[in-house]
Amino acid sequence: MVRIISIASGKGGVGKTVAVANIGAALASHFGKKAVVVDCNINNPHLGLYLGGLSSWPATLNDVLRGRARMEHVMYEHSTGLKIIPASFETQDLRRMNMHRLRSMIRSAFDKYDADIVILDSAPGLSQESMLTMRCADEVIFVATPHIPSVVDIAKSCQMLKEGDAKPIGIVLNRVKNASYELGEGEIHKFTGLSVIAKIPESDAVLKSTNFKTPVIKMEPNDRASRAFMELAGRLIGEEYAAPRQGILRSILARFGG
Question: What is the CATH number of the domain that holds 67?
Answer without folding.
Answer: 3.40.50.300
